[in-house]
Amino acid sequence: MAEDKVVQAAIIGCGSMARHHIPGILKQLDMTHIAVVCEPSPAAYAETAQVFREAGVEPPPNQPSLDRMLAEYGSRLDAAFIITPHAGHHDHARACLEAGLDVLLEKPMVMNADEARSLIETRDRTGRLLVVAFNGSLSPQIRTAARLLRSGELGELLSISAVVWQGWGPNTVGTWRQRPEIAGGGFLFDTGAHMLNTVTDLAGQGFVEVAAWLDDHGRPVDTLGVVMGWLESGALVTLNGCGETIPSCASDVRVFCTEGILYTDVWGKWLKVQRLGRKQLRTVRVPPSLGVWEQFLAVRAGRMPNPCPPEVGLRMAFLWDAIKASAAQNGVPVRCG
Question: In whole angstroms, what is the distance from residue 266 CA to residue 168 CA?
């Protein structure tokens, strides 16, 4: 759809991630006007308002109720960026889509596969745009890596090994991220969701079966996790998430093929390839990455295809549902999907 006017947008949720994204949006005032925010916490709204002031922009009004915000502002809005805790993603996205808004939805898309199917149905029924804000799927590195793997340039896919680590457990004490009914899981479903998504995106196919073990390390949610699985093609996958290590946040993804090895991370920050006959990995040059909101606008304007539609969220939800089911049985293999 062509877009030649300033997009009137709503920010749903004003927590720390919203405050991370907003400064980038405010640098593009010729493209976007944040007309309203929706945040039930006065303290969170106050912190977010300060972000606007520091950028020299008048803070938008806050309507704490999403239903009221859509009733009062919906006809004047074009899009919404939903940045709420995980448990709210499905209902908030569905309400915005049904109100006629295009939606950029923070990761993980939803809590389970049933919610993912529901959002796909809502997207199809309303005809609106839904983009999931996974850094990996939105990065030119992962898109280039996926094309290399699909093209057959690197030969047959043999196995994928991925690990992500962070001092997550100590850093999220007392926050909603350690409340399972809101978070939907622990480290492996929060920071680790980037790993689950990027690996499934690179694989380009579904998991057939997984065996998983999760450890809460004395916390209300998992902070350690190991997953083994195999894909529809027969390729093998190992996933390792450690959220109890020293202060850090990093990852490593290796894709092994018969004609080469591909190396990246779960956020798609870099891409290196070692081809058959070469002695070392070489950096693959790709176009510069756009921010998640700028990419959303480009998709909305028809300048690029949607790199992360809700089908991506469904694929990851199938994997996460199977991981939970296997871990609940102490690693008994579980079929996916």
Answer: 16
